[in-house]
Description:
It is a single chain. This protein folds into two domains: 2-239 and 301-473, no CATH class; 243-299. It has 16 helices and four strands. It has helices at residues 2-25, 28-36, 42-60, 83-105, 112-128, 135-168, 173-200, 210-233, 250-268, 272-294, 302-331, 333-348, 359-387, 393-413, 419-432, 441-473, and strands at residues 64-66, 243-246, 296-299, 354-356. A two-stranded antiparallel ribbon has the order 1-4. The protein has a two-stranded antiparallel ribbon with strand order 2-3.
Amino acid sequence: METESILLGLALLFGIYMAWNVGANDVANAMGTSVGSKALTLRQAVLVAAVLEFAGAFLVGSHVSDTVRKGIVTPEVFTSNPLFLAYGMIAALLAAGAWLQIASYYGWPVSTTHSIVGAVLGFGVVVGGFNAIHWDKISAIVGSWIISPLMGGLIAYLIFTLLRRRIFYSSNPVKAAQQVTPWLVLCLFFILTLILVFKGLKNLNLDLPLMQALSLAIVVGAIAAFVSSILVRRIRVETTAERELIIQSPKVITALSKAVKHLQQVKADTSGEFHYQTTRLLDEIALLEKTAQRGMEVETGGDAIKTVERIFVYLQIMSACFVAFAHGANDVANAIGPLAAAVDVLKTGVVAMEASVPLWMLGLGGLGIVVGLATWGWRVIETIGKKITELTPTRGFAAEFAAATTIVIASKLGLPISTTHTLVGAVLGVGLARGLGALNLRTVREILISWIVTIPAGALLAVLFFYVLRGIFG
């Protein structure tokens, strides 16, 4: 009995630890772009996410948890020694939490679901061998490394390109935004309502038929679009442009100066038509050199562009709130699922296909997520919001909307995707819409490596902790 009490205490401790790391790493999915675009300050993002993540986890978090997470391991391998499942789930919580803490320290946005799946995979191989693993599930998860960012990135690229052409390239950006915004709001609320029905509220057993879900989403979207059309019509801004003096760096000026000298040499050694063309080119480069030295006034957008971005601040915040609520409802299971499984085995002594999740456990998981976000969440928020590409409210909205759309499409098609990978891919898509030079390729490379390492890292750590627990208590 004393051993079981100790194991229960460890399960509870590591469950809280895992929830803390889910908040530290995964909540940046919802709030990273909002902070990066300055739609919200970090403090505001933490407060908003804290309320919505906790509400999602506590109010509509899953009350039933798969005993063996995501069907990775065949349950029969634990029937002869149910205590091994408890050891494994406790080890998995500690292993996934440890890897997430390492990733959060370096600001890497990794998948918490992949972390816990890797951990379950690790101790599953130890207990039942390679034949006990559902490798088709693992293959599908690995495939999501490609599917998630590609889908998110492509949709974000298309959305942001559309916004630029329809709004920013128009003669009157504010008027164009007033015309486009109601349609965007319609699409936004349509998609976000489907997210709540398909993903965030599935634990309330609101299994609406597809046509009913679509009808509800259309009604909600239409109401929101009508309200937004009234509000945006009141916006009146003089489209006077501001100008800014841009002076090039000494490196650019030096390079232009060298180009002038080389062209002067070419001019001296040529004649005829080639001499004429070289003279024209030399005059243009010489003028460019002078312009670089004295600076050039460029139009920075002025009040019109600022007003457009202000409109999209509200759209981005709304999308972030929906995603945060759905995330709390769905991903609290990454911490509470293994905890519920371990507690169930320790109390009953048998391996059940499902374990009940009491309300206090959901509250504990929600609280852990909130504390993790408040204490360490800024690290990953900074990576997604600032280190991949420069974000504005329109770019942040395009990324959030693309991620939400991808989640809905993939959920209904049965495609295994990661919310984290989807959002990072969406941010990359927004950056690519402005050219490869808009991306911080070093940060992108680090993120990709961390994704590949996540499942093996979770598995190896879980094996290590499983053997430690079995050595101590077995």
